[in-house]
Batch of 4 targets.
Target 1
Amino acid sequence: MPTISKAAMHTANKKRVLEQLFQHTTISRADIARNLGLNKSTVSSLYTELATMGLVEMIGSGESTNNGGRRPDLIRLKREYGYVISFEIGTYHTRAMANYLNGEVLDFAEFDTPQLDALAMLQLIKNVITQMQQVAVAEQGLIGLGFAIHGIVDDNQVVDSPFINFRGIDLQTFFQDEYQVPVVVENEANAAAVFERDFNLCQQANNILAISIHRGIGSGIITSNRLYHGNHGMAGEIGRSLVTTNQGLVKVETICSEEAFLSLILRDVDQNWPLAWDDLKAIYQQQSVATGPRLAETVEQLGKTVFNAITSFGPDVVFFSSPLFDAVPAIFVAVKEWLLNHGTTVTIKRVQGSQQVSLLGTSALAIRAVLDLQGYQLSLVAPATISHLD
């Protein structure tokens, strides 16, 4: 049996203490020692080390036990240690978010970027980072960066991005060299799944399927609490699945993506996409009698695709993340009803506030990279604007 060096054990215990700090808003050193089965002196030594690094702070005294005695000192993760900035690069937009170390949102921005090429996008990102650095206040400043890409990502490298051509551009190396901080690059549906795992809104489900519907359709897969990428980052690319239609063999995303739904909703009105989501909601409500039957076939195809994904991956819970569903929840209700009527028994939820989900998941990955906490269970602070609905 291989032996573990003293240094390796020390590092592992320090990460376990950090894990406890992420999982509890406040906690005493005695409780950490009890939870981890460590000596109090070991935890006190690790606390001193983390406090010297600026990662933890003491905030006062807790309640004494029923037997009386000294009130324990309470400690917590120091959120102002630093912040990460994450970007979601979509078809028509780019969103950016700054988050403290505990996940709390510090800043958010959104830009219309329908015509930018890759080089112009890089310059925009640098400009946004500069702007957020001027607003954000933290002891160490910027400590990490993250990018959520609508496309295939393998080991932090963009393999395929159909809506903006990043081929040949190493985002991770470029921004690591530019800012000297850890950088993560991930598929946006995978990032949505990480959000569900790390921001603890799904009550510790270990197997999660996050369906992300935008211009394409993707799914992020958490299995046994770990993000599953598959070969070359291809896992979860359900929108690229093939189905037979009257037009022959086509990809799923051509008939039940966000654009497919939008074309049906806007077919009889003098409006073109993109337009404000509130305007789309109003149009749908005005046209619902005519639009409902037109959507039935598309709803069925989406239901079939998700049903097959559920039977393939065996999740505990399925989350739908889509700005379209935020604006027109009736479409989600129809898809959920189709799934339930065809024997699906897993929990199915819609994420309200989905436009920030991939950003938050990417921020979680960046925080993990900064502290080298891959494989540990975090519980980050989710904004009140995001919720799970039936």
Target 2
Amino acid sequence: METISNLFKWKHYEAGIILLTVRWYSKYSLSYRDVAEMMEERGLNISHTTIMRWVHQFGPEIDKRIRPYLKITNDSYRVDETYIRVRGHWKYLYRAVDSEGSTIDSMLSENRDIQAAKRFFKKAISSPHNQSPRVITVDKNPAYPPAFEQLMDEKELSKETLVRQIKYLNNIVEQDHRFIKKITNPMMGFKSFHTAEKTIMGIEAFHMLRKEQVEIPPVLSYVEWIHELFGLTA
């Protein structure tokens, strides 16, 4: 993991200012220009393109740094895909939550097929904060049954895992999509798949923080705790 000196080297603004703009953009329905204007009101002239670069760099970094502190999710997976516009075309954001609404994982994909489903489940199952699924609830996407069969044959998924294709049981993940789409919709689409992926990682990280999925010492606010993760002193 990069040190604070390397992460913020050659930056013209303090680390706390950079993390503040990333947090505002990733947590609220704001454009890059909105965040730039809000910083200007505080006496800081930061271009919206600079803030965009910070979001692309530090959103994934925040996601990486909070993952060791995520609380364990339960073994009932609720899985669904939602749509994200990239360069005028729809891409697929695979997302899973447990039966209590805690985020299990997410993955942006060019395609909605068997291989994409397998990649997503391998990613989710391998995350240390996730249990192996006892039951997986999905929609009627025809790619799921063969994907699960292949994962079971490859011993990535237990053959005892119950797979249910029952749409109404997935209301909890469909509701959870709304918090992500509330942030991404004002963007009017992304310019590239790579930047979409990086931006969504930051949005998902702050969404998990909002849902209190992270073990944060009770004496610290989550903002103070994020600063500690980056080695910033109060």
Target 3
Amino acid sequence: MSAQSMDDNTVNERQLEEQKHFLKLTGEDEKFVAELQSSFTSIASQLIENFYDHLLSYTTTSKFLKDPRLIARLKSMQIEYFSELLSGKYDAEYARKRLQIGQKHQQIGLEPRWYLGAYNIYLQECFPAFAASLGKEVPKQLLSLLKVILLDIGLTLETYFAESKKSLKRHNSELEQALQMYYHTEVKSRQYAKLAGHEIRGSLNAIGNVIEEVVDDFSEEIPVAARDALRSANERCHQVMKVVEDILSKSDLTGTPQWVETGRLLAEIQDRLPMYADGTDVQLILPSEAPRVWADPIGLREVFANLVSNATHHLSPTGGRIEIEAQTTRERHIFTVSDNGSGIPPEQQTQIFQPFYRCDGRNHDGKGLGLYFVKRITEQHGGQVWVESVVGKGSRFSFCLPTESLWEPTNHAFKNL
């Protein structure tokens, strides 16, 4: 049972109460503990001094205590720690603070056995003082037993952590193998796609050449209607060839990842706005602050360029407004490209990320691949893309990238995707 939730800074109160019930920690127990507060106050300063003298005498613990200012701060915090321990109030806030202490110990590499050892030192000095305040004496046998109990708990916890490390290492190995398999499968798929694309392009080129030769050599013998149909077919061949070339040029949607300053990248997008707007009067608003992300810069630029270009096609011919926003949470970088254009009907919103899909009524000659590439690139970065749109008011295209993605510099399986 654990009182800690998925978020390290929050506490599951139901589980906390269940844990207290399992330990048979009752309201009467809390009252009895609170009665020891005054006894601790009388010995607190000397107890803390003795404790840190002991810590500084051991190499393993003294390495954490080289700064005198840190020691002074820790002594003050230690008194507060035990005051809360003896408060008799063990609610969610109490548990949250204890969990934070555990996090700090883990971050600095302090093993549980040293934490339990420190507790033993405190208790060995506190118990006689508590007993004296009650007019009694603690049997030495019980103090000795307490030492053995804490030693036993420490050894058990070490086993738990050792097994957890083994399990984590095994899962990491399995994940690495899965990533390697995915990488090789992805590479082969792209190779096949390139080969097929080149074959299609070559065949279309040959067909187009034959049509041109037929039209040129037999123009007088061929009826006008047939000649026009052949020329139309030839134009269609060239259009399809252009689509194939676009696919081939973007078959390597993601290159070598690196740290990307998105603010600088967005400034480049703004410089190219006239090309995307194609003569339309467009106002592009950039975020005041933009995060630094780990990504393929070419792929990320393609995502922003396609989203901005897509937004311009929804605007009125007289112009409009596009705004890019950026925010970062604990797990994700979220970017949003919004416009005040015509919007997208609900029945089309589920299809716009499919290849070759074009919204009805769009005033441009695109091939319906831009948003498809946005989706592919985003997903290959470990993120996702979605849209919110209201007809007549505009659209909001958002995509997210993990703050700690599959694209870490040490992940060789994805470095060359």
Target 4
Amino acid sequence: MPQSELRLVQYSGLQAETTMSPPCGKVHMALRFKGLEYDVVNLGNPGQTKRYNPRGRVPVLLFGEEAVVDSTDILDTLEQRFPSPPMNPSAPADLARARIWEDWADEVLYFYGAYLRWCCPENFARLKANKLGQLPFPLRLIIPYFAKRMVHKRFHGQGVGLKSQEVVHRELRTCLESLETVLQDQTWLAGPEISRGDLAVAAVIDQLRVETLTPWSAQQVSQFPAILAWLQKVHQKAPCASDAGPLPESS
């Protein structure tokens, strides 16, 4: 299959070529890491998603007419069809660690970022002003209401949805401190080379760094030099797809 038949279906970021979604960012980075050419299909509203995925979720990666959904399944498929360079470590223990880091990014770290963006009134106002408010009328009135309602419904009664903003801030800070401690002693998260675990975690950190939308988390990330140095190395191999500003030059 020609590489040009690859198409990534996503919600765009503040620019058409970026994304506001960590799972979409993870797929962008995997495609770039593997040096694959691909096109981007930006959806205008959530109602368009089911055209590509009956579950109504992105990312979706189209291999010609074949659709693969879920960012982890997409990375598995890319690794199977385009094995070089590898995202999966060759050592079984390192591969296990890479998958644990990926799951932590997707199922823990992601939800702290989503909470900050959608459930904190001051940040949701920034999201509306910088992104949702740019939609054409009447979508700019309808989409913010239904999108926020959908996110709150997903959070209701579980996980971060049960916690106050103060607790979410404290727990996210603890996550960043733990990641900083790990990266002070090793170059990559799972073995001697970059892996899918690095891509998944970096995709979430990149979204936390978008100061326009979540200035508190951007300021927090900026305080951790080992994370910033690691992120710089990740981006050299798999360029960032978020709206975060440039990283500071490492000393």
